[in-house]
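Journal club prep, notes for RB
We'll compare a predicted complex against what the paper describes. Inputs for the heme C case:
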Amino acid sequence: MPTPTRPLTAPAATVAVLAVLLPAAGAVAAAPTRDELVNADYIRGRTAFEQRCSACHTLADGGGNLTGPNLYGIMKRQAGATPGFDSSPALSAAGFQWDPGRMVEFITAPAKLVPGTRMAIPEPVPEADRVPLVAFLMLETGAADWPRPAAAMAKDPSMDKSRPIQERFPSFWNHLMTNTTRYRMETPAGEVRFDAYFNTDGTVTSNDARISGFWQIDSRDFFCYALRGVPAKPDQFIECFPVRAMAIPRFAPELWTSNPTAGVTLHGGIERGRPQPGG
Ligand code: HEC
């Protein structure tokens, strides 16, 4: 059982007093100061958010809930109280209001701050990215009283849509176009496994000759692809992901899960390398 350093239900006033009396208690990193937040690198924060959070969270006012809740207004909210999102009992009972320090702790180790939370991240956000990410989050969710650094944004090469995808998102491109995407589809009639190869010409081929498809990146920078000829029901499906969410190269048999249709679960992963054509 994890042992909280203080009762989670302690009234806010008690917590504040304890924090003042015991500034050095525990091994928790210091909360970022306002100066650190205002001066944080916006592009670095945005890149970290896009790569590590955007697959599960939207930020804009009125944005939808994905696997995780929309984060607009999160800094003034009780944990686990996002309207329209079914938060875990652990998060709803955490009993704190989000602030920059807690956000840093959460993106370092979600289950350490909130044991039992349903949010899982594949690795802690690297230390150098934490404050920039939280500052970016505050700017984009209505919590910052300082402006976005317009000059920094103009210099970001990934924003220049006139440049080819492989220059804007080189790590995404290299990862997907040189490795094998491995699928496991669970259907009421049984399980089907197959591999897919995303090709630079926009086609998708497979180790199963019946399966083929295509992919494209749309104007919102979402990577969308369609596969057909899958030897199961459904025999075709489409999936879309923010391309920036795919920019950290990862290898694992199961990296994402989706439901192409009711009762069917699709697991996707990426394996190193791919067979050479004709080999
Ligand atoms: C794989 C999906 C996934 C990723 C990636 C992810 N989250 Fe989450 N996040 C969730 C889920 C699911 C919840 C709800 C957790 C619960 O109910 O216990 C959540 C909850 C949260 C909450 C609390 C919301 C509330 O209502 O109190 C915050 C804040 C948050 N995430 C921020 C982030 C940040 C910042 C990142 C990137 C470092 C991130 N998340 C990455 C899925 C994800």
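Talking point for the session: The domain at 28-155 is CATH 1.10.760.10 (Cytochrome Bc1 Complex; Chain D, domain 2).
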